[in-house]
User: What shape does this take?
Amino acid sequence: MAMQAPADEALIGRIARGDRLAMQVLFARHHVQIYRFVLRLLRDEMAAEDVIGEVFLDVWRQADRFEGRSAVSTWLIAIARFKALSMLRKRRDVGLDEETAEAIEEPSDDPERAVAKQDKGEKLRRCLASLSREHREVIDLVYYHEKSVEEVARIVGIPQNTVKTRMFYARKKLGELCRMAGIDRGWP
Amino acid sequence: MIASDNAREPTELEMLLPWYAAGTLRRRDRQRVEEALRNDADLARQVDLVREEFSETIHFNETLGAPPPRVLDRLMASIDAETARKRVPGAIANWLTGYFANLSPRTLAMAASFAVLAIALQGFMLVDIFTKPQSEISGYGLSGEHHGTFATVRFVRQANAGEITNFLQDYQATLVDGPTPGGVYKVRLGVTSLAKEELVRIVQRMRRERIVETADADE
Assistant: This one.
């Protein structure tokens, strides 16, 4: 009989009692997805690494306060999001605002300029990268992290109806970028 | 039915399609969407677009890679530092012993042991600094440390010796002087002169550290 992996909630309970091994298991289970979520927000690998470390250190410190009102992965993403946005705010304070960072790190994001030779999938992925932070965040949460309307609302801290409309307009913007890149998807 | 008119507000069902495609819709809403799809060709076409976006978003995220193993190493070192601090106040030396015991064999290679020893010494120095009243701290300047590339750093008040030791290790930095009356330490980043751009990049990264209040190049 296959050994069943402990549920995330059980791992959190063990972490709250100071179990280092449980911490490593939880890290192994979630760190890649959390890293990718943060990297999409920050667009800076070193900064994303730093945030990941801080997120899991917070889990170690606050595991006894986890109430189980949401999935552990939702809790982790919410912590990661808070820390990533704090870092963005701090960057703005030192004069490196988000748009500047984006312009430096992804200079070829403009779908009009850079995608003529690429296939449809590649073009669409470039358009995904070109979305605003708010739009790429909601698209990642729904499609990649498979979060429900309620979970996205909890993570982002907005009403459920706003989650739905934000996702709709993110998709609409994606469609517009695709059209600019030469992909006619028939919508919007 | 969905209209192609861009100015029109989206319907509730249209807005639910991404969650329908992702399989994260509540049963009742999923049934509503399925029922509408049977009678609305435009809505069904919209689902095809959503599935295409869904697939490419996953593909895109999967190409982003993963963080390197050092992230876990650093995390566990920080956890060990906290645990040691809670267990026996002031027993940073015990933490250092445990920390070194947990390092991988590769890290424990002979070549690294000199660096580790230097870091340990700085750790003890920092314990001393943090346990003395500010008035008694007159400076920890080390003789013969005048060559190389330097930065000045002020740590947040909550930073403990273990965290600062980790910080120095991460940046392969050496504490050479401080604190000044303003609480600023001078650290050496390399024995040779680094390029100005490299120094700026390191200092900018330092400024993002949780335990750093200010960091500047010391040219």
Remarks:
- Residues 108-188 of chain A form a domain with the Arc Repressor Mutant, subunit A fold (CATH 1.10.10.10).
